[in-house]
Design brief:
Elements lengths: L3 H4 L5 H12 L4 E4 L6 E4 L3 E9 L2 E7 L2 H8 L4 E3 L8 E6 L2 H18 L13
Antiparallel strand pairs: 1-2, 2-3, 3-4, 4-6, 5-6
Helix pairs in contact: 2-4
Length: 127
């Protein structure tokens, strides 16, 4: 496995692997690493998530709607994303299974916002 999953040998390996596999199961999604850590894109090079491992914590950066962003920012592990925060992106620090579920929902929403219209709903049909 490439990217973050290979780097997550001690802390949070299950979380890292979950974040790496889930978006790759959606139509037109693929992984890239232009900055040395995994990013996920859909369609014609449209970024929908970035992921990195730091000090045993998975940091997931995604784009959200204004309403969902407001809810997410109420969580203590969520902050406005560096550089792209002004465009609706947040970064969530995921250290345990309790933080995993909401972050997976944010990942789905980010895919939905960035994916071509014909494939958007695929992220919500895999349950």
């Amino acid at each position: 496995m490439s990217g973050i999953a290979s780097a997550a040998s001690s802390a949070s390996p299950q979380i890292a692997v979950t974040y790496q596999k889930k978006p790759l199961s959606w139509p037109l999604a693929y992984e890239d690493a232009p900055w040395g850590h995994p990013v996920f894109k859909v369609g014609d090079n449209r970024l929908f998530a970035m992921m990195r491992l730091e000090d045993g914590v998975v940091h997931l950066t995604v784009k959200l709607t204004p309403e969902e962003r407001e809810v997410a920012r109420s969580q203590p592990n969520v902050r406005r994303a560096a550089y792209v925060g002004r465009y609706g992106w947040i970064t969530a620090a995921i250290a345990d299974a309790e933080q995993l579920e909401p972050a997976l929902e944010w990942l789905r929403e980010s895919y939905w916002l960035r994916a071509p219209t014909g494939v958007r709903d695929a992220a919500f049909g895999d349950e």
